[in-house]
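One example copied in:
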Amino acid sequence: MEYCSIALGKIMKNYELVLMFTVGEDSLTNQTIDKFKSVITENKGTIDRYEDWGSLKMAYDINNENKARYILMNFKGNKSIIDQLNELIKFNDHILRHLIINTKNTITEPSFMNKEQLKSA
């Protein structure tokens, strides 16, 4: 596991993306996620982990919503991918909140949230 790699002369770093979507618009959410995945793969990035945590109650209301559909994605990408994702997120009113962080290592194992869902299923 490494901090970054080089693909086609571009530095590829590890990132974690968490998205919070409005509840009840599953087709729009799925279209948005598919677009994000295609941006990553078309720019030579790789998706290491993808989890749909479903609808969860938020700690506080955002835009009069008390639930959100949470999506977690870990991927390897470059600055161009991050810039494109930020542009897509900025103009999407369906996304309540998002977080993109740089991670030190490639993360592929299930998250705590996914382990809880698998245990309760």
Summary: The chain has three helices and five strands. The chain has a mean pLDDT of 88. The helical segments are 26-42, 79-90, 112-120. The chain has one domain: 4-120.
